[in-house]
Amino acid sequence: QQQVKQSPQSLIVQKGGISIINCAYENTAFDYFPWYQQFPGKGPALLIAIRPDVSEKKEGRFTISFNKSAKQFSLHIMDSQPGDSATYFCAADINTGFQKLVFGTGTRLLVSP
Amino acid sequence: EPEVTQTPSHQVTQMGQEVILRCVPISNHLYFYWYRQILGQKVEFLVSFYNNEISEKSEIFDDQFSVERPDGSNFTLKIRSTKLEDSAMYFCASSEFTEAFFGQGTRLTVV
């Protein structure tokens, strides 16, 4: 019940295309859903996050769509660029003050020029 | 921009040896964490620390692990007797409330 399932495992998108990564969770107590971007040899960097009181959040080319009833959320990267090539992790947490993030298994995105 | 810094970036140690991984969290943050990532796998929560004590720990964080905030700026993870399976990338993170910020990690290799 503590798992967050992420798909696909890897994704190749052409420059300018839309990258879509999906996550699903079981624990209805989760109420904070961040996405992290990780480049090789670096730590995860917070990209964008959403809470279940909204169905969508957009920051620049990055959008989170959230479906509370389906217990699913997704990351959309519009106009994907080669610099977006990285591993993306979804995560979930119960807002207790401190963070005990449960991470998805990661999606390796490659944006071809 | 404030950041979480970790030292060393890479640590090689022999099985059975003790290692200490060091972190300097962002200065106004109240919560501190250690996560680890075995090569090619997902990031896993180890422990959270608040108000000078452990607030929660995972099953991975057994008696071989300990954390300490020895002064006002550093946060350390100690592994008393390293095992081969402890080889991983260890990430320190800190948060003020939500939004954890991660350091660049320490790659621990146990040989």
Tell me about this structure:
The complex is a heterodimer of chains A (113) and B (111). Chain A is mainly beta. Chain A contains no helices and eleven strands. Chain A has strands spanning 4-7, 10-14, 19-25, 33-38, 45-50, 56-59, 62-67, 72-77, 86-92, 102-103, 107-112. In chain A, the strands form two sheets. In chain A, strands 2, 4, 5, 9, 10 and 11 form a six-stranded mixed β-sheet that branches. In chain A, a hairpin with a 4-residue loop joins strand 7 and strand 8. The model of chain A has no long low-confidence stretch (mean pLDDT 94). Chain B has no helices and eleven strands. Chain B is mainly β. In chain B, a hairpin with a 6-residue loop joins strand 7 and strand 8. In chain B, strands 2, 4, 5, 6, 9, 10 and 11 form a seven-stranded mixed β-sheet that branches. Chain B has a four-stranded antiparallel β-sheet with strand order 1-3-8-7, with no helix packed on it. Chain B has strands spanning 5-7, 10-13, 19-24, 31-37, 43-50, 53-57, 65-68, 75-79, 88-95, 101-102, 106-110. Chain B starts with a strand and ends with a strand. Chain B is globular and about 35 Å long. The chains are: A mainly beta (113), B mainly beta (111).
Topology:
The complex is a heterodimer of chains A (113) and B (111).
Chain A: E1 4-7, E2 10-14, E3 19-25, E4 33-38, E5 45-50, E6 56-59, E7 62-67, E8 72-77, E9 86-92, E10 102-103, E11 107-112
Parallel strand pairs in A: 2-11
Antiparallel strand pairs in A: 1-3, 3-8, 4-5, 4-9, 6-7, 7-8, 9-10, 9-11
Chain B: E1 5-7, E2 10-13, E3 19-24, E4 31-37, E5 43-50, E6 53-57, E7 65-68, E8 75-79, E9 88-95, E10 101-102, E11 106-110
Parallel strand pairs in B: 2-11
Antiparallel strand pairs in B: 1-3, 3-8, 4-5, 4-9, 5-6, 7-8, 9-10, 9-11
Summarize the structure.
With 113 residues, chain A is mainly β. Chain A has strands at residues 4-7, 10-14, 19-25, 33-38, 45-50, 56-59, 62-67, 72-77, 86-92, 102-103, 107-112. Chain B has strands at residues 5-7, 10-13, 19-24, 31-37, 43-50, 53-57, 65-68, 75-79, 88-95, 101-102, 106-110.
